[in-house]
Structure formats: structure tokens, C-alpha cells
Amino acid sequence: MARRRSAVRIGVTGLGKREELAPGVFINTFYRGCTPGFIYTEEGIVLVDSPLIPTQAMDWRAQIEEEYPDVPFLYLINTDHHRGHALGNQYFLPVKVIAHERAHKEMSGYTENFKERVRNSFKREPEIQTQLNNIVIVPPHITFTQRANLLYGERRIELIYVGGHTPATSIVWLPDESVCFVGDIVWVDQHPYMAQGNTLEWLRALAFLREIEAEYLVPGHGPVCGVDATYRVGEYIEFMRGVRDYYRAGKNKNETKSGLVGEMLEWFPVPPERKAKIESQIKSGLNRVFREIQREEEEASGKVTAGLDDDNEEDFD
To answer: Which of 8, 187, 253, 311 has the most CB atoms less than 10 A away?
Structure first.
């Protein structure tokens, strides 16, 4: 195996340096959309998530190939199906993509309208919008339901379904290195995107992360953190579940949002230019949690109600 050790080298297109968390385990926190990672094994490279913006995806591939010349890509694991984690899959082919089976269902349903919405989301950044003219959706080639293990030499990589953020959200756990790629279960100083969430699953996922006691948690967005970061996210979710008080008081969703959005906005710092977008994101989350609480209350009273999956929100985190 030939390796050029360069953990502090700036990326070949100047898009940010990679960081080595443990021997052969790298991340890059400089890309928009997600924090991707890769893991060297004796038989090849296993990647975690793919950058959304094409120049960043190509930069990441170049950095990996610079670090480990002539080492093949084995798998690319998507922690969920959202655009920021999976839309760059095409730039790592012919790698085999692995994700939860629900991610396959969601990504197989991405239409030309979805692609157009992705492009339109960058209308104020035409240089990026142009890069997205040739989106190719690459759904998972391999799926799992609860757990899957990859064993290569002395490297053990555990894929664990946790749900919570989406019906497909999974984590990637390296027990020997004490590194866990947690996807969008953990957000550091940011408002979680909750439009496809299930808060009870999410709280259980956070508790699970505390149990495994990883030294490094790699969130889907933002800086590496420790288990302490799970508590703030949990408090945020518990606070949002306070919509139950509004529901029991006979308030509708709009009344509930009017009562809670302002308070929710204060939980994490929001740049002025992003305030409108974050408010919209919080409202989407409150819509979702309101339906979840409504279902819990109706089930408790013996009524039958549709599941949350029947009210799916198209991905845009």
C-alpha cells in the first residue's frame, strides 16, 4: 500500500484540508451539505456520505486518491437519503453504495422535479447552479434493515439503523477507533432539520450514542464533537415536543407555530441572512412534531390514525 501522508495538506482545489481522527480515518468539515469521511482498510476505501456540490465531491475524491494512491473504493455509505449526504454519489462510481432500505425507496423516487428544486435552491449562486445541470441519482446498490458489519483485516465497521432524523437515518460506528459517524442525529450549534423526523426515535438514538461512549462523534454537518453535544439536541427536541400542551389546549398547527417559533429560534445562533430560512425550517419541524403528538394522543384515546410516513416531506436539508 502506497500512502502519501498529508493530513494537514490543503485540498487540491483549495477547498479545505482533511483531518485524520484515527489512523486511516479521515473527514473534511469544509464542504457544504455534509461532513464526509473515509476509512482505509487493507482491501480498499470505505466512504461515508458524499458532498452535494460537484466541485467539492471531485475535490474529496482527489484528496482520497492523493492520500492512498491506487487503493480501490469498496463502498460508499449514505447515513440517509437527503441531498446533502447522497447526491454526490455519482462522483465516486464505480463504488457500491450502501444505505438503509428506506433510503433506496426514497432515492428511487427522486424525479426530474426534485432535481430542478435542487438546482433552484442555488439560484443566487449561479456558479453552483450550473454545476448541478447533470444530476444523476445513484440509489443504494446494497441495503440493510437494522444492522450490517463490514470486516476488512483488523478494521470493523458497524452500520446501525437508528431512525429519528429520517426513516432511513443510520450511523457508522468504528468501535476499535472510538469514532462514530452519526449523520444528522447530532447538530452542533445549529437548528436540526426535523421535517421528516420522529422525535421518540431521535431521543432513543441520542441515548444510544451516549451508551457507546465514542470519543469522536462526526455529525452530518459541522465540527466533530463528543457525547456532551447529544444533550443539547435532546433538550431541543424535548422542548419542541411541548406542542402537546398546545394540542391539548385545542390549538391548531398554525396557532402552535405562532406560539413556539420565536422561542425555538433563540436556541441556536442564526445569522441574519438565514433567519427567514431557519424560521421556515422550524415551522416544518413543528408541523411534523404536531402530527406526531396528535397521533400519540389519538392512539392513547383508542382512535386510529395514519402513521407519520404517510405524510412525507421531500428532503431539503
So the answer is: 187
Least reliable range by pLDDT among 1-5, 100-104, 216-220, 294-298: 1-5
Average pLDDT in the chain: 90
- The Cα 172–Cα 79 span in angstroms is 8
Is residue 305 very low, low, confident or very high in pLDDT (cuts 50, 70, 90)? low
Going from N- to C-terminal start, the domains of the chain cover 19-226, 239-311
Q: In this model, does residue 300 exceed pLDDT 90?
A: no
The sign one gets for the Cα dihedral 280, 282, 285, 291 is negative
What is the Cα gyration radius of the chain? 20
CATH 3.90.1150.10 fits 19-226, yes or no: no
Global pTM exceeds 0.85: yes
